[in-house]
């Protein structure tokens, strides 16, 4: 078994054929990275008591010169007078309007804007926000920070990942929200005899809010049942997909619709089993060999998760990446066989903020955890020591909302979990006590 963090079909021959076909493929790339904004009154500065809501999708073109926006809103107090995109401002700060959406009186809007390089930089660093103004709230009724669609632990929609833990004893997710330092709880499902339980978080409905997910595993058959709490409708979706005995969870946005897809990687076969959210149809990706470790991510910056695996060859860790933009296979060498990789998904592991997945491994030396990172922007690398070898580590978390990955180590101390974060925006170290030591 390959080391990874967190938690019958043709096999090798078909995989080899698929690999050869992929290398020969020359499809043109069509990079269309997506960003989301969940609009609410709470994000206004100062906050409003509006019950209105909205979701905006921003699609950046391949040349990074234009952005297409789609905005849907409802429940506002009065007629809309203007919709703006503002910047540069972090959550909790105000800035001037840089784009005005014309003819914005209807609840569904689609527009395209030209972008400068500085504006693209502000978009990637999550320093732009939507603001909808109304007659009753002329200074703005609802607002939403624009963030990368792959953020997986942002439950309040402000563009910063929150602290979330799952307590199996009462089937409850406990969240410490960054917006207003509020506490939120969500309970759903029941504990059933003969089943194991696990948890996950990701935005499966595309509303810009993290959806808590419970895994119920049949202790006899190994079948995984996904219970997804959809924050857009406050309903629970149940999906039977994957087997605990043979599969790794490999959540990602494989179809590029800004929604996470239910997916697993079967390590005994080297096959990806995916349910695309855009169609609801199953998809089988023959990429990898038995025993490979899955490391899905958007390595080619096209807004779609790439199937990717690592394999130990001649004392080195090799990365095989099937780029969704053109179908070609990219091979990289990074890390040692004893290193740990991060393949649970769905968050983008992006330390340089360029929108592409970086190569990262964890190496434990003398009881300390070291992270070896190779940046996608220039192939340079750095080594960061953070936490202990025994800590639970998250890579790809973004607590400060700057569009770059933070490193987080969770350590049980005196019966409680302490979250130690290294924030990328300032280099600041932060320690937050949240959850019990037995929480997931």
Structural commentary:
Keywords: Signal. Residues 31-151 form the CHRD domain. The chain has 440 residues and is mainly β. It has helices spanning 12-24, 117-124; strands spanning 33-39, 53-60, 66-74, 80-87, 97-101, 108-114, 128-134, 142-145, 147-148, 163-167, 172-176, 183-187, 195-202, 211-218, 223-230, 235-243, 247-249, 262-266, 271-275, 282-286, 293-294, 307-313, 316-322, 329-333, 359-365, 368-374, 381-388, 392-397, 406-413, 416-422, 429-436. A five-stranded antiparallel sheet has the order 6-3-2-1-9, with no helix packed on it. It has a four-stranded antiparallel sheet with strand order 5-4-7-8, with no helix packed on it. The model is unreliable at 1-30 (pLDDT under 50).
Largest sheet: 5 strands, antiparallel
**Got a strand count?**
31
CATH second-level architecture of the domain at 33-148: Sandwich
Assembly type:
single chain
**With helices defined by DSSP (H or I, 4 residues minimum), what is the helix count?**
2
- The gross shape turns out to be globular
Distance between the termini: 22 Å
Poorly predicted residue ranges:
1-30
And the CATH topology of the domain at 33-148? Immunoglobulin-like
CATH class categorisation of the domain at 33-148: Mainly Beta
User: What's the mean pLDDT score?
Assistant: 89
Q: Residue share in helices?
A: under 10%
Structural class designation: mainly beta
What is the rounded Rg?
21 Å
Strand content: 35-45%
Going across the biggest sheet, name each strand in turn: 6-3-2-1-9
Domain CHRD: 31-151
Protein name: CHRD domain-containing protein
Keywords: Signal
Signal peptide: 1-31
């Amino acid at each position: 078994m390959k080391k990874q963090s967190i938690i019958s079909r043709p096999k090798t021959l078909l995989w080899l054929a698929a690999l050869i076909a992929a290398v020969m493929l020359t499809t043109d790339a069509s990079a269309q990275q997506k960003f989301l904004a969940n609009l609410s009154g709470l994000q206004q500065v100062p906050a409003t008591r509006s019950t209105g809501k909205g979701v905006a999708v921003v699609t950046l073109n391949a040349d990074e010169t234009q952005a297409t926006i789609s905005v849907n809103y409802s429940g506002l107090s009065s007629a809309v007078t203007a919709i703006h995109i503002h910047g540069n401002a972090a959550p909790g700060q105000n800035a001037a309007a840089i784009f005005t959406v014309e003819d914005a009186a209807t609840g569904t809007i689609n527009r395209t804007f030209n972008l400068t390089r500085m504006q693209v930089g502000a978009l990637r660093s999550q320093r732009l926000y939507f603001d909808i103004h109304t007659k009753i709230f002329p200074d703005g009724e609802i607002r939403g920070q624009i963030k990368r669609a792959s953020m997986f632990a942002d439950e309040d929609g402000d563009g910063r990942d929150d602290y979330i833990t799952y307590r199996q004893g009462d089937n409850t997710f406990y969240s410490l929200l960054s917006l207003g330092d509020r506490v939120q709880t969500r309970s759903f499902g029941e504990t059933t005899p003969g089943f194991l339980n696990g948890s996950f978080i990701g935005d499966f409905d595309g509303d810009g809010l993290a959806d808590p997910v419970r895994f119920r595993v049949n202790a006899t058959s190994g079948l995984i049942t996904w219970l997804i709490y959809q924050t857009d409708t406050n309903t629970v979706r149940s999906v039977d997909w994957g087997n605990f005995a043979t599969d790794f969870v490999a959540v990602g946005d494989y179809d590029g619709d800004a929604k996470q897809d239910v997916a697993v990687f079967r390590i005994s076969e080297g096959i990806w089993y995916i349910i695309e959210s855009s169609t609801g149809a199953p998809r089988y990706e023959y990429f990898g060999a038995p025993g490979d470790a899955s490391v899905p991510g958007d390595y080619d910056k096209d807004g779609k998760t790439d199937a990717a695996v690592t394999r130990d060859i001649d004392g080195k860790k090799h990365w095989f990446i099937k780029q969704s933009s053109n179908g070609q296979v990219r091979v990289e060498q990074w890390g040692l066989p004893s290193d740990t990789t991060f393949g649970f998904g769905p968050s983008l592991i992006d330390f340089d903020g360029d929108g592409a997945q970086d190569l990262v491994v964890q190496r434990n030396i003398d009881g300390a955890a070291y992270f070896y990172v190779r940046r996608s922007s220039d192939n340079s690398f750095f080594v960061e020591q953070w936490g202990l070898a025994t800590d639970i580590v998250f890579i790809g978390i973004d607590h400060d909302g700057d569009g770059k990955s933070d490193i987080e180590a969770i350590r049980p101390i005196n019966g409680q979990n302490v979250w130690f974060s290294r924030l990328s925006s300032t280099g600041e170290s932060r320690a937050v006590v949240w959850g019990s030591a037995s929480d997931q």
